[in-house]
Here is the input.
Amino acid sequence: MHDTPPSVTSMKRWSGLLRLMRPQQWIKNSFVLAPLVFAGAFKDPHAIAQALLAMALFCVASSAAYIVNDIKDVERDRMHPKKSKTRPLAAGIVRRSEALALVALLYGVLVWGWFLQPAVVLVICGYLALNWAYSFGLKHQPVLDIFTVAFGFVLRVYAGAQALSVPVSSWMFITTLCLALYLAAVKRRQELSHRGSESREVLEQYTVALVDRYAEMAATGALVFYSMFVMSAQPELVITVPVVLFGLFRYWFVVERLEGGESPTDALLFDLPLLATVLVWIGACLWVLWPASH
Here is the structure.
C-alpha cells in the first residue's frame, strides 16, 4: 500500500529522503550555541568543536523526530492540499520502509554520539522522548502543544551547556522559554488564520485573538527577562536590548503585514531586515563579550 510509484527516479527518491530530514529547520539548533557565546568560550577551539558537535547531534535528533512525526501523520497529510505534495512520504516519493530505515540510521548516529558526548546525548534522549509524546498525543492538547514545542528549545540550550560543562543560568532558561513560546504561538496563529483548523486538530481549540494574547505575553516576558539578565549579569550587553526589541517588532510586522511566521525559519531566512537584526545581535554579543574570554 502507498509504495513508491515506478515513476519516482532514484535521484528523486534520494532528494525526498533529504527533504524528509528537513535540513532547512536545522537553523533552530543554533540555540545549542548560546552557552558558547554567553560563557565567553567562543575563543577556545576545543569548546567551539564541542559545541558544534552537540549542535550536529541535535540536527540528527531533530531530523529523526520530524520523520517519526511524518510517519505517524502520513495518512492525514495525504488528504492535505499542500502537505500531500510537499512532504515526501505523503507524496509517495519515499516508501515508509525507507523512512523507517533512515530513522534507524539516525538513531545509530546518536548511539555513536553517546561515546563522544554522553551528557549531551542524554539531553537529546529527553528531547526525543518529548517529541514522541508530542507526535502521539501532546500535539492534540491545547496549550500543552505550544509548551512542548517551546521546551524543545530549552533542551537545545541545556545540551549546549552540557557540551561545555557550564551551568545554564536561570535567566537564560526563562528567556529561551519565553522566546520559544512567542515563536510557537505565532506559528499557531498563522496556521489558524490562513487555513483554519484543517492543518491541525488542536487548532479547533484556539482562536486568533487567544493566540495573539499568548504571543504578546511571551514576547513581553522574553524582553523583560532578557533585559533583567543583561542588567544583572552582563551590563555591557545593554546595547543589545534595543536590537532585541527591534527584532520582536520586525518579526511581528512580518507576521501581520507580510503573512510570514508560519515557519519561523522561512521568516528569518527570507526577510533581510530580520536576518540583519539577528546578525547584528550576534556580532554585538561577540564584540561585547570578547574580553571576558581571556
Remarks:
- The chain has a mean pLDDT of 87.
- The CA atoms of residues 32 and 156 lie 5 Å apart.
- Residues 45-72 form the longest helix (28 residues).
